[in-house]
Design goal:
CATH superfamily: 2,3-Dihydroxybiphenyl 1,2-Dioxygenase, domain 1
Structural class: alpha/beta
CATH class: Alpha Beta
Low-confidence stretches: none
Mean pLDDT: 93
Strand content: 35-45%
Order of helices and strands: HEHEEEEHEEH
Largest sheet: 7 strands, mixed
Helix content: 25-40%
Number of strands: 7
């Protein structure tokens, strides 16, 4: 996979993502930053392949083991531009042994700094998944529909990684 193909796939995903945000859930996200996109992998060999390909498009921002699997964050040399967004970070988790995902984009994450509880209250009619809302590190809330997740975090992943490294 080259940059052109990756960018094309990202724009197809982002079109579906924003359709879900605006038409299905009717969320007002004007002014919110998309922090990153997440590319899921079906197998470990797919993770290794995608990491190699993504590293030709950028550099390794951070890599760590989380819940028994590797997660790479790749900072793209050139941002993916979509609407008013410029997305520079790609999250690439190795596959979970207990869950199966097809290869491809799975979620995008917005930074919502006004309190995740406030977001859930504002849109209380939506089927929020709030199991991670009280996590000490990188709390989130999400909505999932037909294999696409919309996630909201109070901080960027870069901020979370920087603060983890200082501890």
């Amino acid at each position: 996979m080259d940059r052109k193909e990756f960018e094309k796939l990202s724009k197809v995903f982002l079109t579906q993502f924003f359709s879900l945000v605006e038409e299905h859930y009717k969320l007002e996200v004007q002014g919110l930053e998309i922090d990153h996109l997440c590319w899921r992998c079906a197998r470990d060999v797919d993770y290794e392949y995608m990491e190699t390909k993504l590293l030709t498009m950028g550099s390794l921002f951070h890599k760590s083991r989380h819940n028994g699997r590797l997660i790479s964050l790749i900072a793209l040399d050139e941002s993916i531009r979509f609407r008013d967004q410029q997305i520079k970070l790609i999250e690439l988790p190795a596959p979970k042994k207990s869950k199966s995902f097809p290869n491809g984009f799975e979620h995008a994450e917005f930074v919502f700094s006004e309190g995740l509880e406030n977001l859930v209250k504002r849109y209380s009619n939506l089927p929020w998944i709030t199991k991670n809302i009280r996590k000490a590190i990188n709390p989130d809330v999400k909505l999932t529909h037909q294999g696409i997740s919309l996630k909201f975090h109070p901080y960027t992943l870069a901020h979370v990684v920087k603060n983890l490294e200082q501890d």
